[in-house]
Design brief:
By secondary structure, the protein is an alpha/beta fold. It is about 35% helix and about 25% strand. The protein has three domains: about 170 residues, Rossmann fold; about 170 residues, Rossmann fold (3-Layer(aba) Sandwich), CATH 3.40.50; about 80 residues, K homology (KH) domain (GMP Synthetase, Chain A, domain 3), CATH 3.30.300.20. It has 13 helices and 17 strands. The protein has a seven-stranded mixed β-sheet with strand order 2-3-4-1-5-6-7, sandwiched between helices. The relative contact order is 0.08. About 10% of the residues have low confidence. It binds guanosine-5'-diphosphate. InterPro entries: AAA+_ATPase, G_ENGA, GTP-bd, GTPase_Der, KH_dom-like, KH_dom-like_a/b, P-loop_NTPase, Small_GTP-bd.
Length: about 425
């Protein structure tokens, strides 16, 4: 069974929370007395899934002194766990000891769910919100004592807890980056794929322990192996028949879902169509890194080029952040620019802005360009944190309602300041009362 460790400073309520998780069925599965510490493991179940919970509460009276003991117990438990619930006392806020544990958690690289305990009333909610500052993602407000919020917290745990430890082996961790080559019929997807596959090496997949979807192809480009997902539908020319568009769009959606980066092919010789826009929107909404490639460049005359630029401005202004390459699958023009563009987009997609830097930037921005006054009040952005990557997600805390125009302004400035080329970014604003 997968193992969940519950760690945190003394008196934050770890044991109470563990009792909640196991539903007070204190069935001790393992009891391993150590020399100076004991670890107690329970079996728990939530939403039909079973896992083990390690209570580290017994280590609190370590002779090493409180801080050393917290670090030691955390380190020890984290090492053996598949996921960690880190408990912080929301009433007290993050202490130096908490910060020290956060550093340990980072180093260990295990998935962490942050529980902000002792949130018994409304005011506690905003106390919990401050714990975004720990950089561990969303704080889950809970009251271990009353049971409030523990269900939501456990849902979050199940999301990060592997089914069984073995299953993490051979899954997508590491492995080649996944590209979805998409675009409406006849833009040249199959030609482009053939071009890159013929000029470069198609890698015969021999990775031990991994199962590969036969419709994915491994192709080495620029010295790196990439996985082009769902290529069967690209190579096999589907003869146009009724409903073909519908299936093509389903296939596009499936490919985007499996990929990290979408390379969207547009036929530059024709007007940008509604279908092209739909495909772009699909990739943005799926939160994928994105590169736009304008194909059939060999056929363009000066006039068409002029109109194409105007069309790109009006139709794709919203995705001006996507790297652009002008290619020809026929002649091979600018094919070498494809990989650097993909790498740029993936880098943007994975960018993480440290909380300190983000808030220094937001502080200056808000001071120089305050939100317009509304109803005699001036809503302010108080604090922000990057809640995630792939794509970058930000949560901003504000003192009042922030208008859409101002949100767009913040997004634009964030893009200018940090390297978010080739990636959508999500910004959500929470209003603190
Ligand atoms: P798919 O449906 O997106 O896979 O498109 P195909 O690769 O089958 O290409 C559709 C048509 O466009 C074929 O007749 C190709 O020869 C042609 N085509 C593809 N790329 C180019 C290009 O860069 N230049 C020109 N002139 N024709 C191209």
């Amino acid at each position: 069974l997968p193992v969940l460790a519950v760690v945190g400073r003394p008196n934050v309520g770890k044991s109470t929370l563990v009792n909640r998780i196991i539903g007070r069925r204190e069935a001790v599965v393992e009891d391993k007395p150590g020399v100076t510490r004991d670890r107690v493991t329970y079996e728990a179940e939530w939403s039909g899934r079973r896992f083990k919970v390690v209570d580290t509460g017994g280590w609190e009276q370590d002779v090493l002194g409180i801080d050393a003991s917290v670090a030691a117990q955390a380190e020890y438990a984290i090492e053996a766990a598949d996921a960690v619930v880190f408990v912080v006392d929301a009433k007290v806020g993050a202490t130096d000891t908490d910060e020290a544990v956060v550093r340990l958690l980072r180093k260990a690289g295990k998935p962490v769910v942050l529980a902000a305990n002792k949130v018994d009333g409304q005011s506690g909610e905003s106390d919990a919100a401050y714990l975004w500052g720990l950089g561990l993602g969303e704080p889950h407000p809970v009251s271990a004592l009353h049971g409030r919020g523990t269900g939501d917290m456990l849902d979050a745990v199940l999301e990060v807890l592997p089914d069984a430890p073995e299953q993490t082996f051979g899954s997508a961790v590491g492995g080649p980056r996944r590209i979805a080559l998409i675009g409406r019929p006849n833009v040249g997807k199959s030609s482009l794929l053939n071009k890159v596959a013929n000029e470069e090496r198609v890698v015969v997949n021999e990775m031990a322990g991994t199962t590969r979807d036969p419709v994915d192809e491994l192709i080495e480009l620029g010295g790196v192996t990439w996985k082009f997902v769902d290529t069967a539908g690209i190579r096999k020319r589907v003869h146009l028949q009724q409903g073909a568009d519908y299936y093509a769009s389903l296939r596009t959606a499936a490919a985007v879902e499996k990929a990290e980066v979408a390379v969207i092919l547009i036929d530059a010789s024709e007007s940008i169509s509604v279908q092209d826009q739909r495909i772009v929107t699909m990739a943005v909404e799926a939160g994928r890194a994105m590169v736009i490639a304008y194909n059939k460049w060999d056929t363009l005359d000066e006039e068409r080029r002029y109109y194409l630029e105007r069309e790109i401005e009006t139709e794709f202004g919203q995705v001006a952040w996507a790297p652009r390459v002008n290619v020809s699958a026929l002649t091979g023009r600018h094919m070498e620019k494809l990989v650097p563009a993909i790498e740029t987009a993936l880098a943007g997609w994975e960018t993480r802005v440290p909380t300190g830097r983000l808030n220094a930037f937001l502080g200056e921005l808000v001071a120089a360009h305050p939100h317009p006054i509304r109803g005699g009040k001036q809503p302010r952005i108080l604090f922000g944190t990057q809640a995630g990557t792939k794509p970058p997600r930000f949560v901003l805390f504000a003192s009042g309602f922030i208008e859409a125009g101002y949100r767009r302004f913040i997004e634009r400035r964030l893009r200018e300041e940090f390297s978010f080329e080739g990636t959508p970014i999500h910004i959500s604003v929470r209003v603190r009362e």
